[in-house]
Write a structure and sequence with these properties.
Keywords: Membrane, Transmembrane, Transmembrane helix. The protein is an all-alpha fold. The radius of gyration is 23 Å and the shape is extended. It has 5 helices and no strands. α2 (about 20-55) packs antiparallel against α3 and α3 runs antiparallel to α4 (about 105-140). Helices cover about 80% and strands about 0% of the residues.
Length: about 190
């Protein structure tokens, strides 16, 4: 049998860094979640621009400067979250592990974070839909009371979703620490 010179030897022998696979999947899921929420954010910006900036009685050049600055910071913030969001979450996760459960396996601890990222992707769909509903209710209605009601409703739903996600993440870490016999509070 002839050896393929283009075959990667670590894959051919079964060796390799397979611990990177869950992180790579989590990174892709994090970026998909961010892209979904970015669409809702851009719709919000377009609605704001159309309703507020587009109808203001100011010079066209000032409107374009305002739009350019906003879109520039959308790009900078988006790139920072796209490339640095998951590493930031991993850093916070590692810090929490070192404080509350230093004897728990690091890969298992991060595995709970990666499961959370996978779950967050599905919750982001609900968040994006609620956000888009808010945009329609807030910018589509003229009354102050309907805008206030839309904002309160959105805050309530977003708060409930955030609490549910954080509860899931923290309870996963607590279960992991408890199974490993790690006391969560040192005496």
């Amino acid at each position: 049998m002839e050896i393929n010179p283009y075959q990667v030897t670590s894959l051919a022998t079964g060796e390799g860094d397979f611990n990177r696979l869950p992180r790579d999947i989590a990174l892709r899921q994090f970026q998909q979640t961010f892209a979904l929420l970015l669409v809702a954010a851009l719709v919000n910006y377009v609605a704001f621009d159309w309703l507020i900036i587009g109808q203001m009685n100011i010079a066209y050049s000032l409107k374009m400067i305002y739009r350019g600055v906003n879109l520039f910071w959308f790009g900078v913030g988006g790139a920072a979250i796209w490339y640095g969001g998951l590493p930031l979450l991993e850093g916070v996760s590692a810090m929490l592990r070192s404080v509350f459960a230093p004897r728990v396996d690091r890969q298992a601890w991060q595995g709970v974070l990666y499961q959370f990222v996978a779950l967050a992707r599905w919750w982001a769909i609900a968040c994006a839909l609620v956000w888009l509903m808010w945009v329609g209710m807030f910018y589509g209605n003229e009354g102050y009371s309907s805008r206030l009601l839309a904002t309160l409703f959105t805050w309530l739903v977003a708060g409930l979703i955030s609490v549910r996600l954080l509860w899931g993440l923290c309870s996963g870490w607590v279960r992991l620490a408890w199974r490993s016999g790690e006391p969560l509070v040192s005496r």
